[in-house]
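The instructor's notes for this session suggest beginning with a concrete chain rather than abstract definitions. Hand out the sequence below and ask the class to guess, before any prediction is shown, which regions might be ordered.
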Amino acid sequence: MKREYSQDLVDKAKKIKILAFDVDGVMTEGGVTYDENGVEYKTFNVKDGHGIVRMNNAGFITTIITARNNGTVQHRAENLKFKEIHQGKIYKLPVLEEIMKKYNCTFENVSYMGDDLPDICILEKVALACCPADAVDEVLDICNFVSTKNGGRGAVRELCDFILDAQGIKREYTVSETSSK
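After discussion, reveal the predicted structure:
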């Protein structure tokens, strides 16, 4: 079933050039799994990944800005061909501002999806402040795009589809990261 969005939200989505994402709780369910050697594992949603591939193919600037530093995230980001990967960044806003400067964009051109308190500094500034359905209350209260899906369960894909639709970019099959190997 297709969601209905306000014209104001659609108008904001039409101006988006940069899609930035937190990882834990957005691209993953937010759990952290360790093996007996302390190696951290994460599980990502393939549908979310296909949304990122489609955004890249359509010419959007996709970026990860996360406070944690993890090889699994690096591998996933490279596999999906994110344009910008920034890990270990406690202060996320300055990183986003540098990305905006690099690509000659303003906050009006940015969508950011986060789920917890460290994301608020960015969510308060960007045109399209987004979160998964299971974000913390403080984030839910300030976001103008709240996915119907939880983090790691299709929230990223729902946002990608919304922006593509708003900009009139046809939804078509593209080679995903799994079929391109």
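Then share the key points. The CA atoms of residues 28 and 43 lie 6 Å apart. The chain has a mean pLDDT of 93.
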